[in-house]
Design goal:
The protein has 3 domains: 174 residues, P-loop containing nucleotide triphosphate hydrolases (Rossmann fold, 3-Layer(aba) Sandwich), CATH 3.40.50.300; 170 residues, P-loop containing nucleotide triphosphate hydrolases (Rossmann fold, 3-Layer(aba) Sandwich), CATH 3.40.50.300; 61 residues, no CATH class. 33% of the residues lie in helices and 21% in strands. Helix 2 crosses helix 3 and helix 4 runs parallel beside helix 5. The termini are far apart.
């Protein structure tokens, strides 16, 4: 088994979880936390034959994590390591580590608030701060308090950004362990500032072609969404013409499994890949062979408009933390290069971290989940509580005629809703 940076902190992590029921692990992308941590804890006495649940933010990440963990054991997925995602499951009677997506965990908590048979719950990539992850953490903490007195559920939050102090406070001053990771130098190449109304695709295509000619290795290109990926793919295909050594691979959450694997797997011998990705490739996936990153500096984020009651997708600047994580993808195996399509001055104007989804999302789904759980937000522990005005609007919506019941079913005529 090859050495990874996270290995240095695993003994301390074992000690922390033996002494406490909570811990926070900070480690940059590529440190090996997803691959090594569950396996390192599987033989601990306190686990006592129970299972480990590990939460991943996306289906692709959950499937990939399970495959890597099983590979480390020399097994197939569905033996010691399995996964459950929407419409797909690979678990067996011997499964001890189960990788799940956020929606799966929330539904499991609603059906079994105590998480019977689970000894450790790992929240991977918690820095992404999705609404479902925040909700699952709040419910699991409450379920543990109510139902797990004799053998408390242990909870581990793993994050790639430096917000460990806040996480520790939420978990009752839980110990924080930090892995520095292993990074080769990454040269930053800055672009000119974007002009208002300027399309990003021509700049991206020009920069990718420049990087192909000037640098070696495969490229990872960050774009805000599928539409930009399609347009850049088309323009690059036209510009590259007969250069068959260059493979263009889109990567986003709606691709089928074969296309996703084509993007993640190493390029065949004598060929190079240009992976056109959304922020799905920012932290939770490892793409082999990349030493050049081209970053448009944008992400598409859902925003709820209380006035219209609708959610729209806004394209916005990424945070400095996201920019650092993206650039780090170029320095995983050897010194790399990151082309940033914004200026050094603009870098200083970026927000330090991305905002939590719970602060800007439609909370109707959350209100429905809390109604089913039988609590109000102020009865749960949150890193960032749902905004009171947005939650009140969502709560009112659930009491309108025709709104779903707390279990998600539609009411019968005359039946009260959200009870």
């Amino acid at each position: 088994m090859n050495s990874l940076p996270i290995d240095e902190v695993l003994p301390a992590l074992r000690e922390a979880l033996a002494a406490r029921h909570e811990a926070v692990l900070e480690a940059p992308p590529g440190a090996g936390k997803t691959t090594r941590v569950p396996l390192a804890l599987l033989d601990q006495d306190w686990l006592a034959g129970q299972t480990i649940l590990m939460l991943e933010p996306r289906r692709l990440a959950a499937r990939a994590a399970a495959e890597r963990l099983a590979s480390e054991l020399g097994e197939k997925v569905g033996e010691t390591v399995g996964y459950r995602i929407r419409l797909e499951s690979k678990v067996g009677p011997r499964t001890r580590i189960e990788v799940v997506t956020e929606g799966i965990l929330t539904r499991r908590l609603q059906d079994d608030p105590a998480l019977e048979g689970v000894g450790l719950l790992i929240f991977d990539e918690f820095h992404e701060r999705s609404l479902d992850a925040d909700l699952a953490l709040a419910l699991s903490l409450n379920g543990r308090e109510l139902f797990r007195d004799e053998q408390p559920l242990k909870i581990l939050l793993m994050s790639a950004t430096l917000e460990g102090e806040r996480l520790s406070t939420l978990l009752g001053d839980a110990p924080i362990l930090r892995s520095e990771g292993r990074m080769f130098p990454v040269t930053q190449r800055w672009g000119r500032p974007f002009q208002p109304g300027e399309f990003i695709e021509p700049r991206v295509v020009q920069t990718v072609l420049e990087a192909i000619n000037d640098e070696s290795g495969s490229l990872l290109v960050f774009l805000p969404g599928q539409a930009e990926i399609r347009r850049v793919h088309q323009q690059l295909a036209e510009s590259l013409g007969q250069r068959s050594e260059i493979l263009l691979c889109p990567l986003h959450g709606e691709l089928d499994l074969a296309a996703q694997r084509a993007a993640i797997d190493p390029a065949p011998a004598g060929r190079r890949k240009v992976v056109l990705a959304t922020n799905i490739a920012e932290t939770s996936l490892t793409i082999n062979g990349v030493r050049v990153v081209v970053d448009a500096g944008l992400a598409r984020v859902p925003r709820f408009d209380p006035g219209s009651g609708m959610t729209r997708l806004d394209t916005q600047r990424i945070s400095r933390a996201s920019a650092t994580q993206r650039a780090g993808r170029a320095g995983r195996l050897e010194p790399g290069v990151c082309y940033r399509l914004w200026s050094a001055d603009q870098q200083e104007q970026l927000a330090a971290y991305a905002g939590a989804e719970i602060l800007q999302a439609d909370l109707a789904g959350l209100a429905l989940q809390l109604a089913r759980w039988g609590v109000t937000p102020n009865q749960l522990a949150w890193l960032d509580p749902p905004p009171s005005a947005a939650y009140a609007q969502a709560h009112d919506l659930l009491h309108r005629p025709g709104a779903p019941n707390a279990d998600g079913t539609l009411p019968r005529p005359g039946q009260p809703t959200a009870e």
